[in-house]
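look at this fold:
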Amino acid sequence: MAQQPQPSRRFTRWGVSLACLFRHEGAVHKGRMHDLSEGGAFLESSVCPAKGARITLALKSADGQRQFNLGAEVRHRSSIKTPRGKLLGFGVEFRNLTPQAVADIEQLIIRHGQVSD
């Protein structure tokens, strides 16, 4: 049975574990995406940009056949609990999504997502 989203959130968060790259201040960094929604995500990374920083995420499509990019703004730096333990990283809000980017996010959720708390 699907859980209802938290009242303070516009989009349901889905638990995923997806490798990604992100570009910040001209450098490319590795990360792992968790808690994906149509509005944003949590990224586990040893590099945590400051709140308000703009980044570009690079993800593989759900079928693995192509890469797509998402513009995002860092909303907070924190940690989340997972079955693996506490993960350090940062939460982002997606910015200026195209209809294709929304469709790509939806396909990732369909393929990899589990309702998250």
Summary: Residues 13 and 37 are 5 Å apart (CA to CA).
